[in-house]
């Protein structure tokens, strides 16, 4: 019998707040953890000093477990890994990159390791390397994505690994949680839902634009260069897609995304910035506190 993610992480509800580059700080993570889920401080877009500060702050804001998301493609990943090892949050998840060389180092320090994977092949690899659990993230998710849907990943992966599996991608309400659990998932990870929470420091223009958006408003950028990112349609996205699907050379396409996400979440430019968000948009229609979000996801919460 697989151990439950709630038992592994010592959390009340089987819910993880996904790492959100630039905007998942200690305040957001601790609000989620205080409400009974597992909050995450995201290293994406920040340096090791910021991470150190945020872990210290989260310790002041909550006595509940919280984690850290490390993007393994980042140039300063080694400094971030060192500081995380020193500060010892309860668990780590990994964004883009190969987590296998890091698993044992974290575990020897008592840190639980939960890689994010987009395929069964990688799920089996991280399981063989000793991961405590894994997150499968389907292409319905906001941000950088793989090529399988959440439903297909749940179908393909859950029955083929022995460690607990957390489902992510397009899960934004209680029905999504119940569907994932019915598929055998041990829990879910939500990103977009918390991006528009009150505590998330993302610019309010971004949150409002997401609230106004509907099912077909998100598209994938960078599919043709194997650098897929799910974002909301806007002026920037229109011009990007025009080049991506034209005969023009594609070398510059990856570079064209650089700094554009910050333009949206930090500066609030919702036309020339890149708003990363998942597909389950029609239930993302209110900016709520993390406590209220989790109360609605788990109505038995007292
Ligand atoms: C704005 C935004 C930023 C994200 N940044 C990261 C990141 O830095 N690292 C990571 O592993 N995943 C990142 N993700 C993915 C989330 O952690 C989560 O897996 C995903 O949002 C789940 O799908 P959903 O958006 O449909 O809830 C990001 C997602 C969004 C929407």
TL;DR?
The protein has 2 domains: 5-200 and 284-297, Aldolase class I (TIM Barrel, Alpha-Beta Barrel); 204-265, no CATH class. The protein is built from 13 helices and 11 strands.
Q: Would you write up a description of this structure?
A:
This protein has 2 domains: 5-200 and 284-297, TIM Barrel; 204-265, no CATH class. Helix content is 36%, strand content 15%. The protein contains 13 helices and 11 strands. It has helices at residues 5-9, 26-34, 48-61, 77-87, 103-108, 120-128, 150-157, 174-182, 192-195, 204-212, 235-244, 260-265, 290-297, and strands spanning 15-17, 39-42, 66-70, 91-94, 112-117, 134-137, 143-144, 165-168, 187-190, 218-221, 229-232. It has an 8-stranded parallel beta sheet with strand order 1-9-8-6-5-4-3-2. Strands 7-11-10 form a 3-stranded antiparallel beta sheet, covered by helices on one side. The mean pLDDT is 96. Flavin mononucleotide (FMN) binds next to strand 9 and helix 9.
